[in-house]
């Protein structure tokens, strides 16, 4: 994790304005544009520097380096104000930011393609299905996003998959990569093979991954049922430089898994296709990127004792986006401006959906502009997002046809107080459109009894809030060669028309449980601390979150609880030996109690059951392109139910030994 000072970013903008030829732009045609962020420069190690965003960029070393002691869910839970809704049987990832999740409050995507598959039940109301073996990084933005990917006011999480450059050795035109891992708890095996090539104009990547494993045991040695793994996936990416200034790309991802969750055995497939275009002629005014994409997530209920064996549900998302980034000198000020549009549509499909609709259409569109002004010690980020949505479909007693618009601004003012402290304040507003699953809820709970009804008058949630804090970058803090980087901040978010499930009478005179807007203001606030200390002899990372939520409770059974723990702390220490070839380290995680909602109740209470986890890790560079690693997670066999678990009786994994390797050739 890197938090570079924005003053340095401003200098990089000025440097970019003086690029002498278009060849420098052509060399960077395959660099990513991170969602919700203007990349205005790159650090010496290639890490992007973001402007005006509270963001965390997780890269290769975070995902699979020596210190990556856990799975993707666990890694996300170690990030400031980030959590996940954990269902041990479901391989999907549901990201929670600042206590908000589900139904699009956090905009989740894979390579920028929105992931909008949702299921109303005893689980999260939205998952991302992507193979962590195929990931190159995860980019997390906290709070409303006014630029690309800003559909959720709580933040955004984009899961980026491998590129050819992630596989090839430096300077190589062709090559491959192998990843293998074995664990003893559940006897899980994971493997990935990738091949890539690059010529002057053409590059190609193909990767395939497989995960298998049995049910794991908790800290008491008790087997936790239905926690097995069965995942396979493939990834194809092709890029071609039409000229020194123009590039086209195509990617195709296929993911399939079998799992048991929400009382049924399920077979799920997630397919994503994306066509990209970039035009960067070397002009500071034009860096144009456009994408067309389509994706479909489909699941079938294939086993179980209930009446919904044979249920099928699918969501197909089709859309496009267009972004141009310009760099302009305005007297003493420098402006970096990202302007564009995005539009997408979801179509539901399937049969025997129960309370979930299997027909309906949701359309979203937005125009956006985010502008970073820098002058001396000042940096001002001004963003504006104009959004609209429409939902239509047939509910039990009539047609759903609703639409709305929103104009959402965001302003960040930062000042470089000293060469290593930069205070800032952010004011923002965001909107979340209701989903088809919320609006068109219907049917009865399996087994009968509780009636569910649609709400044709459901309104969007709107958020207004602020964030105040400071960025830190200090070199030579205690000794020559050390550095401290990070961010400390306080956030406050007020939500109007917050949506929860409750008993009501809808506009058609039906009475039952529906998703409805809560009158008044719902609030959450908290403190975030994210620090990294690099010393010539060791590295230390700290992530701390304090969350104080005043949100209404989501009823378990129509969604899942969202409250974050009151306090979470992740502390990581590592040290290199043998000329940096051997790395040894440890990870400590503390999760406190907090507000909690029991199944089928809407009244939260304070549940003071905390837990602590300790992991150990080691890696050894056999050669420059061969790494062997070993890990021990949950060293002390802690017996615990992960916070935001689908069931308080499903404990987390006990002590687990991992051994693996990554080879490039």
Plain-language structure description:
It is found in: Cell outer membrane. It comes from Rhodobacter maris. Keywords: Cell outer membrane, Membrane, Receptor, Signal, TonB box, Transmembrane, Transmembrane beta strand, Transport. One of its GO terms (cellular component) is cell outer membrane. Belongs to the TonB-dependent receptor family. This protein is mainly beta and 665 residues long. The chain has a single domain, classed as Beta Barrel (Maltoporin, Chain A). Helix content is 5%, strand content 54%. The chain has 6 helices and 35 strands. It has a 22-stranded antiparallel barrel. Strands 3-8-9-6-7 form a 5-stranded mixed sheet. Strand 6 and strand 7 form a beta hairpin. The longest helix has 11 residues, at 6-16. It is globular and about 70 Å long. 48% of the residues are buried.
List keywords for this structure.
665 residues; mainly beta; Maltoporin, Chain A; 22-stranded antiparallel β-barrel; 5-stranded mixed sheet; 6 helices; 35 strands; 5% helix; 54% strand; disordered N terminus
- Write down the overall mean pLDDT: 89
Please give the count of helices.
Answer: 6
The radius of gyration over CA amounts to 24 Å
**Which stretches are poorly predicted, pLDDT < 50 over at least 5 residues?**
1-28, 33-38, 40-51
Helix content: under 10%
What's the total number of strands?
35
Number of domains: 1
The global form is: globular
CATH H-tier superfamily: TonB-dependent receptor, beta-barrel domain
């Amino acid at each position: 994790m890197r938090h570079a000072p924005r003053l340095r970013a401003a200098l990089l903008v000025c440097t970019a304005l003086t690029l002498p030829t278009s060849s420098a732009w052509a060399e960077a045609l395959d660099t990513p544009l991170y969602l919700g962020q203007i990349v205005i420069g790159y650090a010496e190690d290639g890490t992007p520097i973001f402007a005006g965003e509270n963001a965390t960029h997780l890269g290769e070393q975070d995902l699979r380096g020596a210190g990556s002691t856990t799975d993707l869910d666990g890694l996300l839970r170690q990030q400031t104000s980030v959590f996940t809704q954990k269902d041990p049987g479901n391989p999907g990832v549901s990201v929670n930011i600042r206590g908000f999740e589900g139904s699009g409050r956090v905009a989740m995507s894979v390579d920028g393609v929105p992931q909008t598959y949702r299921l109303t039940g005893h689980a999260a109301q939205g998952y991302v299905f992507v193979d962590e073996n195929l990931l190159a990084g995860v980019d997390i933005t906290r709070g409303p996003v006014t630029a690309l990917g800003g559909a959720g006011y709580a933040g955004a999480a984009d899961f980026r998959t491998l590129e050819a450059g992630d596989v090839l050795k430096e300077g190589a035109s062709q090559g491959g990569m192998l990843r293998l891992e074995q664990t003893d708890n559940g006897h899980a095996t994971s493997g990935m093979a990738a091949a890539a090539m690059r010529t002057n104009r053409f590059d190609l990547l193909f990767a395939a991954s497989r995960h298998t494993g049995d049910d794991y045991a908790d800290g008491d040695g008790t087997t936790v049922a239905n926690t097995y793994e069965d995942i396979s996936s493939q990834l194809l990416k092709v890029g071609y430089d039409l000229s020194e200034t123009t590039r086209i790309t195509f990617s195709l991802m296929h993911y399939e898994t079998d799992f048991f969750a929400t009382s049924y055995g399920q077979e799920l497939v997630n397919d994503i296709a994306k066509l990209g275009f970039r035009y960067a002629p070397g002009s500071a005014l034009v860096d144009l990127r456009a994408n067309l994409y389509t994706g479909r997530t489909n699941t079938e209920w294939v086993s179980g004792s209930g009446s919904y064996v044979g249920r099928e549900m699918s969501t197909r998302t089709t859309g496009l986006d267009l972004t141009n980034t310009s760099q302009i000198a305005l007297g003493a000020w420098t402006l970096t401006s990202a302007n564009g549009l995005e539009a997408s549509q979801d179509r539901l499909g399937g049969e025997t959906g129960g309370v979930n609709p299997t027909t309906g259409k949701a359309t979203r569109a937005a125009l956006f502009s985010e502008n970073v002004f820098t002058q001396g010690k000042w940096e001002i980020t001004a963003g504006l997002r104009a959004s609209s949505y429409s939902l239509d479909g047939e509910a039990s007693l009539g047609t759903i046809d609703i639409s709305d618009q929103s104009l959402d601004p965001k302003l960040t003012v930062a000042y470089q107080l000293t060469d290593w402290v930069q205070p800032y304040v952010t004011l923002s507003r965001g909107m979340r459109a209701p989903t088809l699953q919320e609006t068109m809820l219907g049917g009865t709970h399996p087994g009968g009894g509780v009636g569910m009804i649609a709400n044709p008058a459901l309104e969007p949630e709107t958020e207004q809030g602020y964030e105040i804090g400071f960025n830190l970058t200090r070199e030579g803090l205690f000794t020559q060669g050390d550095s401290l980087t990070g961010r400390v901040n306080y956030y406050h978010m007020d939500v109007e028309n917050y949506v929860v499930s409750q008993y009501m009478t809808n506009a058609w005179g039906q009475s039952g449980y529906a998703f409805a807007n809560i009158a008044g203001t719902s609030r959450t606030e908290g403190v975030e601390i994210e620090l990294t200390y690099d010393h010539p002899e060791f590295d230390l990372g700290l992530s701390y979150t304090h969350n104080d939520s005043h949100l209404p409770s989501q009823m378990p059974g129509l969604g899942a609880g969202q409250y974050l723990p009151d306090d979470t702390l992740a502390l990581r220490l590592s040290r290199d030996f043998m000329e940096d070839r051997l790395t040894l380290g440890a990870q400590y995680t503390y999760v406190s109690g907090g507000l909690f909602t029991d199944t089928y109740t809407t009244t939260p209470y304070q549940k003071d059951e905390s837990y602590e986890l300790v992991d150990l890790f080691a890696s050894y560079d056999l050669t420059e392109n061969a790494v062997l690693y070993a890990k021990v997670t949950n060293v002390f066999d802690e017996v615990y139910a992960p916070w935001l678990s689908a069931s308080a009786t499903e404990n987390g994994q006990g002590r687990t030994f991992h051994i693996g390797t990554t080879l490039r050739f």
